[in-house]
């Protein structure tokens, strides 16, 4: 018997002719994360079958698989062969008994069987009876099909039977890097990490763009910004964080922008900067944590003012969410406690009572008068890139993937 973990994807079966592309991306993400823990990773009957290296710790495998997007569930067990000459049930019985004996506190159980191969000579019910009788005889456990302590699963594949125990639910969604490249405007509050995570869950390759109030990006390292980055990097190991100083903008805008418009105009600066970076580095969209009406800068009028005439789409996955549901997701992601830590963000330097309906025409006029493009260019000259290990400058338009 081969020791395996079987990983089921969630919604890829709906992808029609593109299904194989999504399956390969999903399998590759699993393979890359597991590394030497896996002897072999392959697709079989709409599942990813992972043959584990001897002595591999299951808890360690679980920690690696838990953040994988696109996964419905995973389960550990054994893989046994079957053929037209040998139905494989004797070996499957041994596997079921071994899994049942590994659960010393279990008193009742049931077997569930799913046949992906219709060529298999026995019906699902017959497989359940054979494996169930073997477990009862060997362990003395009772069958309870309604409320068992443990369920064992038999999955009949094209040439093998996977006997599994204890399904662990996954995050679902779509596989990493299957939905394009996006740049998240990242404040470090509760909303933007959740927005980035939700778009990662839909398969986007997400990087972060943060505007900070310090003279040097070195001062950001060790704050909650890079700690939040580390949490999100658990879901996307290739995550990058662009750090852009706020002072170039502040030096020009502070004396010319009416106080009631400061917040909205600064957001316009961030959106325009994000747009320029997206165009230079081939990001296909921007992401924000906006929730309609949550604060004054997120009214319909102000959202229109900051997003008008952008050349890239803006995705706002939280736009219809209330604060309680956003907080619940932040806690699920384990970022809430970090997100509420004190941090001197750029918005704290702006007016405390922003206008709720800033005129788009005023924003456009200020943009021209203050030469917003020049402010962005000067800010990018001092920008740096954090990959979780090193902080370095980058030539805009030439960042290597």
What do you see in this structure?
The protein is of the alpha/beta class. The protein has two domains: 2-172, VC0802-like (2-Layer Sandwich); 181-393, 3-Layer(aba) Sandwich (Rossmann fold), CATH 3.40.50.620. 36% of the residues lie in helices and 23% in strands. The chain contains 13 helices and 15 strands. It has helices at 19-34, 58-65, 89-101, 124-139, 191-201, 224-235, 247-253, 262-281, 300-307, 323-333, 336-339, 360-369, 372-381; strands at 2-9, 38-44, 47-52, 71-81, 108-115, 142-143, 150-156, 160-172, 181-185, 205-212, 241-245, 285-287, 314-315, 384-386, 391-393. The chain has an eight-stranded mixed beta sheet with strand order 2-3-1-4-8-7-5-6. It has a seven-stranded mixed beta sheet with strand order 13-12-9-10-11-14-15, with helices on both faces. A hairpin with a 2-residue loop joins strand 2 (38-44) and strand 3. Helix 5 crosses helix 10, helix 7 (247-253) runs antiparallel to helix 13 (372-381) and helix 8 (262-281) crosses helix 9 (300-307). The longest helix is centred in the last third of the chain and has 20 residues, at 262-281. The protein starts with a strand and ends in an 8-residue tail after the last strand. Mean pLDDT is 91; it is low at 397-401.
């Amino acid at each position: 018997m081969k020791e395996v973990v079987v990983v089921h994807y969630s919604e890829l079966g709906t992808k029609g002719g593109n299904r194989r592309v999504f399956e390969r991306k999903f399998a590759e993400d699993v393979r890359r994360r597991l590394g030497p823990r896996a002897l072999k990773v392959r697709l079989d009957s709409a599942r990813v079958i992972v043959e584990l290296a001897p002595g591999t710790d299951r808890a360690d495998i679980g920690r690696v698989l838990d953040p994988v997007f696109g996964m419905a569930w995973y389960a550990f067990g054994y893989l046994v062969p079957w053929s037209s000459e040998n139905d494989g049930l004797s070996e499957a019985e041994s596997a079921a008994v071994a899994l049942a004996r590994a659960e010393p506190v279990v008193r009742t159980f049931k077997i569930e069987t799913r046949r992906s191969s219709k060529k298999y000579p026995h019906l699902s019910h017959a497989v359940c009876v054979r494996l169930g009788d073997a477990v009862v005889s060997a362990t003395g456990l009772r069958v309870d099909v309604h409320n068992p302590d443990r369920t064992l699963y038999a999955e009949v594949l094209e040439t093998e039977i996977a006997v599994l125990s204890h399904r662990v639910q996954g995050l679902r969604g779509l596989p990493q890097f299957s939905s394009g490249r996006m740049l998240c405007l990242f404040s470090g509050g509760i909303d933007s990490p959740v927005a980035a995570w939700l778009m990662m869950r839909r398969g986007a390759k997400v990087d972060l763009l943060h505007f900070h109030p310090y003279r040097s990006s070195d001062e950001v390292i060790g704050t909650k910004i890079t700690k939040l980055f580390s949490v999100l990097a658990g879901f996307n190991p290739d995550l990058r964080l662009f750090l852009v100083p706020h002072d170039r903008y502040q030096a020009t805008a502070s004396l010319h922008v009416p106080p009631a418009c400061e917040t909205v105009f600064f957001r316009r600066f961030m959106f325009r900067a994000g747009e320029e970076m997206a165009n230079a580095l081939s990001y296909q969209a921007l992401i924000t944590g906006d929730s309609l009406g949550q604060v004054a800068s997120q009214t319909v009028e102000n959202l229109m003012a900051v997003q008008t005439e952008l050349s890239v789409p803006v995705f706002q996955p939280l736009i219809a969410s209330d604060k309680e549901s956003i907080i619940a997701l932040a806690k699920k992601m384990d970022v809430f406690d970090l997100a509420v830590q004190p941090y001197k963000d750029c918005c704290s330097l702006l007016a405390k009572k922003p206008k709720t309906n800033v005129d788009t025409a005023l924003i456009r006029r200020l943009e021209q008068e203050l030469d917003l493009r020049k402010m962005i260019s000067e800010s990018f000259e001092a920008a740096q890139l954090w990959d979780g290990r090193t902080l370095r400058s980058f030539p805009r338009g030439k960042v290597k993937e």
